[in-house]
Design a protein that fits this description.
homodimer; Alcohol_dehydrogenase_Fe (chains A, B); HOT (chains A, B); about 10% strand; about 45% helix; transit peptide (chains A, B); alpha/beta
Chain lengths: ~500, ~500
């Protein structure tokens, strides 16, 4: 409508204003404007030129802060009974050959029955892989990939919890990149962390638990046994095409599973809400394809994370206590998906970072209500057990956000000082966990002793992808170790 | 983990609970359970069976209410300077031949320069179509399509406002469906309203205004001159692959454009927030591909709509009054996108429904600050002018939502009675419009007279797609006409 704004007018004020907003690190008076090679000097440079020029020629790329965030999420269909539509979805996308991915438990449930009936009704060829391992290992992932490659499906359907959906994402990835080495895409520094440069095949995810939010994210987590570390593969292209969230499918969760899955949702929302802001993350990627999905808190992820937190605080206790409370169960499935969009685009930090060694170094704890033949610390439990200590620690980075979180727990923050934000939120979390019932209030109740802390610290350090988003964490290694030690120590009993 | 829940146990309570939640219309005690042909009778039916059976065999499909909602949005990248990344995006998606779509004004702006430089830097072949008409007509759309078809690009890049992005969506659609008749996809009843059964080619949208949110929606609006109606094409598959929201690009908007674009955002958020709930919409689609994007308010669109409303009330006045307030301009660009996700998945209703005849039957009004050679009622102005009357009218359908909206305008609702919700919100809106400045406070100021109301009503009636989402509107034609007359009458002066 009008020509681009010219600088001279009220240049200084405009520039200061703009530069403040983009959190730009150079001094307002900068050499480039007197640089004869400035490719815009045939006309007075615009603010856009100004900012862009600096972005194009940073003084030290590795120290340039991020200036943009990218929001990507799967399409979500939510409704009781929606599972029966999945056959039509594959017909609509002209799929001819579908690989259904599930596990031996879910394969007996009604959700699988609906999926199979749906594809059959549409006359679509399919095969079923039902050997997904709960808490997948690289070996179980590779077995799944070996199944998918020769079948070479043109679409995937995952029916199950996070382990099933994550495994399906990787079956899809390595079917599209059959020549790739497994470590090529695994998160650095453990793997090469290469970006996924091709679109994958359609993947429809039908969650049967309300926890991981995997139906909306581009993340897949597994145990890399060879390296003795819990790691994963994360890229936007991994995210499902469509997540079908059918609350009828989560009714089959026992109360204990409702509880631990819900605690995962609680930490997804709290960690993404409190993660460092995206524009404090370094380095700024030189190609947008290298912008991580775990990019730090941003104005869109914030909306999802805070809403998911409020819903979890309100509905999780009801869903756990009353197996007939379908409304609470439905709200928790929605909260899990909202939190998935939140942390899927912002990331998680300390609770998740420490949860990996906590569950893999399990001294022998078997969580009540879990019908398995081996010791197990459910993911949600291993994540939540450090939460009170973690948010006491991170509060100083952003007291207002921690107060808002405390408020979500029903705390009247009108009289709380900002310096008490961590205390108040930590207390609210501890109370929430103990009120929920059947939760281990501290690592000691999981069988850990002070003597185990050092190896838990060592097991946490490789989780750079999430630790880099931890607010307040010291970047110097020894100091960082001390802080992790302190958090684990404080999490022994509360 | 456990077998599907069986009915007998506490069947009644479970059923009531579930049925209440799905807003299911049959009586809890229903014949199907005694029906020998019930295909699940080899075992006691689960709740899933129960619900699904009714969904599979509704007594009267046309009267069955919706039971699911689907949320789809473009990926969004937001950040000052992000426009320069667009060349790499096309390189990353392996595009070889890109059609850039813009208009004669935007083609002179820095955003276009960045787009062209980006593609050139990556050595990607492209051509530019810069003849997009502001407020497109079917003729201008067809001219654009005629340009795109022979070039047959493998990707599209739209740089401009809503008119540009909408036109690019349709160039993409008819390039992928070269044999289709133009009316095939146009919204019924004016067109055939066929669903888009194929994925379209990648479309990256770079908005240069903060208003339509078209970068996130599957909607394209235009004047169908032959039928004398403003209509459009709407399907999820039309939505851009990626929206690049670069606040530097909206700095070129004159204050008057900030204002009217922002009023469009205001109504997108208010109308989607107050639209009928998705699960009150009928009929329930028999195939998910027929589930409209304008599906009614739902728990996810609500989050976006309310946030966009709050941000608009807070930042639009600043963005309009101070051309140097880059923070307010940035927040408005984000609000426009958030509102786009909200109404793109919930819909709009009365303000938009009446805005189409208001702008097309313009008696000769030329909005101040618009540098055009013909009369023009900017879209945002034509939408907002009826807002005070509309929300006074719709409040009875859901007083709490209207009170929440009034609260977003800073009204202390603690003492307001629910029956006064409409009064209070209408008043807050009128005050907001007059405080914004340079706004016509009523249709009279646009040159309309009482005698024009009948033809405005006639021009509104064909907008079924949005009127069907209007809460409180009488479904009987004559009564509906009376209500529209009343709203327009009330909007003459305030």
């Amino acid at each position: 409508m009008v020509p681009a704004i010219r600088i001279p007018a009220s240049a200084a004020s405009r520039a200061r204003n703009l530069l403040r907003t983009v959190q730009y690190t150079h001094p307002p008076s900068c050499p480039c404007h007197s640089n004869p090679s400035h490719h815009h000097h045939h006309r007075s440079p615009t603010l856009a030129d100004h900012v862009r020029r600096h972005m194009a020629t940073p003084t030290d790329p590795s120290r340039e802060k991020e200036y943009a965030f990218e929001m990507a999420a799967s399409s979500i269909r939510f409704g009781p009974g929606a599972t029966k539509e999945v056959g039509m979805d594959f017909a609509n996308m002209k799929a001819k050959r579908v690989c259904i991915v599930t596990d031996s438990n879910v394969s007996k449930l009604d959700a699988m029955k609906q999926a199979v009936e749906g594809l059959t009704r549409e006359g679509i060829e399919f095969t079923v892989f039902d050997k997904v391992r709960i808490e997948p290992k690289d070996s179980s992932i590779k077995e799944a990939i070996a199944f998918a490659k020769p079948y070479n499906p043109d679409a995937f359907l995952a029916v199950g919890g996070g382990s099933v959906i994550d495994t399906a994402k990787l079956m899809n990835l390595y079917t599209v990149f059959p020549e790739a080495d497994f470590l090529d895409f695994v998160n650095a520094p453990i793997g090469k962390g290469l970006p996924v440069t091709k679109a994958l095949r359609p993947l429809v995810a039908v969650p049967t638990t309300a926890g991981t939010g995997s139906e909306t994210t581009g993340t897949a987590i597994f145990d890399l046994v060879s390296k003795g570390a819990k790691t994963g593969i994360a890229h936007r292209n991994l995210k499902p095409t469509l997540g079908i969230c059918d609350p009828i499918n989560t009714r089959t969760m026992p109360s204990a599973v409702h509880a631990s899955s819900g605690l995962d949702v609680l930490c997804h929302s709290l960690e993404s809400w409190t993660a460092i802001p995206y524009n404090e993350r370094t380095p700024r990627p030189t190609n947008p394809i290298n912008r991580p999905a775990y990019q730090g808190a941003n104005p869109i992820s914030d909306i999802f994370s805070l809403q998911a937190l409020r819903d979890t605080v309100k509905y999780l206790p009801r869903a756990v206590k009353d197996p007939d409370d379908f409304e609470a169960q439905s709200k928790m499935l929605l909260a899990a998906t909202l939190a998935g969009v939140g942390f899927g685009n912002a990331g998680v930090h300390l609770c998740h970072g420490m949860s990996y060694p906590i569950s893999s170094q399990n001294p022998g704890y078997k969580h009540a209500g879990y019908d398995v033949d081996h010791p197990i610390i459910p993911h949600g439990v291993s994540v939540a057990v450090t939460a009170p200590a973690v948010f006491r620690f991170t509060a100083a980075s952003n007291p207002d956000r921690h107060l808002a979180a405390a408020e979500a727990f029903g705390v009247d923050i009108s009289t709380v000082k900002r310096e008490s934000a961590g205390e108040v939120l930590g207390e609210a979390l501890a109370r929430f966990l103990s009120d929920l019932g059947d939760q281990p209030l501290g690592l000691k109740n999981l069988g850990f002793k002070s003597g185990d802390i050092e190896s838990l610290v060592e097991g946490t350090l490789p989780q750079r992808r999430v630790l880099m988003l931890a607010p307040n964490l010291n970047s110097e290694l020894e100091a960082e170790k001390d802080e992790l030690r302190g958090l684990l120590q404080e999490s022994l009993v509360y």
